[in-house]
Q: What sequence folds into this?
């Protein structure tokens, strides 16, 4: 496949890696937060809900700058993590973190909606049959919300693939390090003669986005059918 | 095997304060909607925690508000059949049935899968999904699922209330088999006299959050002093009879002592014990044996009790061979007949007046 230059390939591969890890790591947290918001009453619930949804409303640049302020190596938290060997700023891991934060509200919303559609009476029935709360979640709740989890995962992944503002603010635009697909398109558009490279990457973006959407629709429909049992 | 329950809970505009003991067999919790029946069974199952009370099954305390004992529902070993079935839609019937057995401790299972499937007649449904079942089939699977978790006690919260008459008649025989073939004690919640009359061995009557009566089924149903939650129209005595013969004209002859009842054909062998509920409003009284009358069932007995209500009616208890028949007549008729306690009289009822769902197999 030599219709993409090495630098273009690098951007595509990095974007896929960043999105994969961003989605994989935020999924368990997303399910947990969605469950807490849908089912539990606890003090500060509205604050948690607000924090989760903030990246949806804030300008991405602000989210990226806030990440830099808290997790940059000069910041107390970032410094502490650096001592533990964990560095986010200006690394691909930072791009993954920024992508995860930006995609998180979409993921949580989709999962929470499907959780609210699950009848708690089914979970009560499972309890009377001897299932502990954890087993109830694994054998009843999780299978029933699977369509929502799939939709949330794909949405999160698609958002991660397209994330630009927070990423470029937090981890900059270093080719091979933090230059994701959208950053690469932006960079190519800044130099004379870069339009053809940008255009090829635009085509790649379109293909990835469409495939993700079609795949999620098919998968969610199939799982939903299986869950409803018809 | 006994279940001892006491529940105190304050709802808005309604106080629940009930305490009773349920012996082995089927204990019916009987009362109109909103009398607190469901709260009581939810407390037993651990799905609801009342302000005060105790629950003990077989002497093992599951809940005690004084000592703070609280066993979570998953550890109570109490099966629960809900009104709406609550089958897991993502699992097949077979997986639904096996769900509880999977969590029950190995080796403690008393209910065999094949036996339960056969008893409930659900073998043809095993590979289906709940969405493809009728209401009656769903309820049978729900009963099987609860049984197969090998519970120490089975709670049934109006399991037939969501079904139409035909489906009820389809399931009642299975419930009777359940009562007669398994050793698992049951607490059965209902507001339908007919269901209770067929199934219960003990009846606890609840009204507005208080317990009105608690005793053996025939005693409670035959007691004219029990103001029935459905009003006097719900009153009716429970008779235990024996099948004598089936006649060619479609009637089954039943004996009650020396007396005979003729009812539309009952599917039971000669000698089988059958319980029949006869509604008090369907019983006519006479002081002399009537001749040339279309009603086939004429039982000779003695007046045991005459009780006046608020309206123009009186409830007369007639003792027939040690059992009680209730008859609701007007004060005017009582005065015309001069009915007094101890008097000989005849209780008359039409064969066709006895409803199909008021006839069931009897507990030995």
A:
């Amino acid at each position: 496949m030599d219709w993409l230059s090495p630098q273009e390939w690098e951007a595509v591969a990095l974007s896929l890696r960043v999105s994969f890890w961003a989605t994989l790591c935020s999924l368990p947290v997303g399910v947990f937060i969605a469950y807490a918001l849908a089912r539990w009453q606890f003090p500060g619930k509205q604050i948690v809900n607000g924090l989760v949804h903030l990246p949806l409303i804030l300008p991405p640049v602000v989210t990226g700058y806030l990440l830099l302020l808290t997790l940059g190596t000069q910041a107390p938290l970032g410094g502490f993590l650096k001592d533990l060997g964990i560095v986010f700023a200006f690394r691909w891991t930072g791009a993954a973190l920024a992508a995860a934060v930006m995609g998180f509200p979409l993921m949580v919303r989709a999962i929470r909606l499907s959780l609210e559609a699950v009848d708690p009476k089914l979970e009560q029935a499972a309890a009377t049959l001897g299932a502990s709360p954890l087993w109830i979640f694994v054998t009843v709740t999780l299978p029933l919300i699977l369509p929502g989890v799939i939709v949330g995962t794909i949405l999160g992944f698609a958002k991660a693939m397209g994330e630009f503002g927070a990423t470029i603010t937090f981890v900059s635009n270093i080719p091979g390090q933090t230059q994701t697909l959208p950053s690469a398109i932006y960079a190519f558009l800044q130099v004379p003669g870069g339009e053809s490279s940008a255009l090829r990457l635009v085509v790649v973006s379109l293909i990835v986005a469409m495939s993700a959407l079609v795949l999620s629709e098919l998968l969610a429909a199939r799982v939903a059918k299986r869950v409803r049992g018809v | 095997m006994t279940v001892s329950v006491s529940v105190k809970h304050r709802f808005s505009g309604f106080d629940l304060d009930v305490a009773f003991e349920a012996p082995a067999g089927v204990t019916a919790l009987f009362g109109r909607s909103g009398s607190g029946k469901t709260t009581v069974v939810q407390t037993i199952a651990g799905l609801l925690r009342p302000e005060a009370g105790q629950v003990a099954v077989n002497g093992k305390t599951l809940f005690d508000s004084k000592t703070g004992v609280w066993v979570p529902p998953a550890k109570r070993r109490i099966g629960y059949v809900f009104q709406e079935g609550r089958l897991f839609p993502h699992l097949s019937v077979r997986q639904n049935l096996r769900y509880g057995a999977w969590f029950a401790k190995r080796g403690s299972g008393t209910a065999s899968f094949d036996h339960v499937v056969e008893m409930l007649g659900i073998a043809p449904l095993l590979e289906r999904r709940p969405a493809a079942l009728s209401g009656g089939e769903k309820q049978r699977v729900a009963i099987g699922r609860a049984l197969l978790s090998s519970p120490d006690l089975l709670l049934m919260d109006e399991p037939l209330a969501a079904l139409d008459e035909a489906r009820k008649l389809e399931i009642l025989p299975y419930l009777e088999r359940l009562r007669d073939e398994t050793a698992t004690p049951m607490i059965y919640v209902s507001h339908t006299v007919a269901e209770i009359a067929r199934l219960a061995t003990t009846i606890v009557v609840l009204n507005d959050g208080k317990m009105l009566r608690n005793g053996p089924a025939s005693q409670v149903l035959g007691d004219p002093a029990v103001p029935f939650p459905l009003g006097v129209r719900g009153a009716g005595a429970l008779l235990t009879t024996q099948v004598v013969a089936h006649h060619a004209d479609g009637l089954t002859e039943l004996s009650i002592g020396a007396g005979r009842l003729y009812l539309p054909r009952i599917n039971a062998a000669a000698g089988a014990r059958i319980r029949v509920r006869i509604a008090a409003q369907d019983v006519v009284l006479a002081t002399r044996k009537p001749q040339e009358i279309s009603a086939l069932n004429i039982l000779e007995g003695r007046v045991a009790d005459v009780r006046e209500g608020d309206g123009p009616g009186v409830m007369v208890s007639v003792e027939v061979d040690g059992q009680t028949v209730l008859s609701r007549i007007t004060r005017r008729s009582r005065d015309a007949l001069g009915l007094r306690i101890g008097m000989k009289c005849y209780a008359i009822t039409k064969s066709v007046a006895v409803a199909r769902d008021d006839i069931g197999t009897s507990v030995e």
About this structure: Chain B has two domains: 3-221, 236-361. Chain B is about 20% helix and 35% strand. The mean pLDDT of chain B is 85.
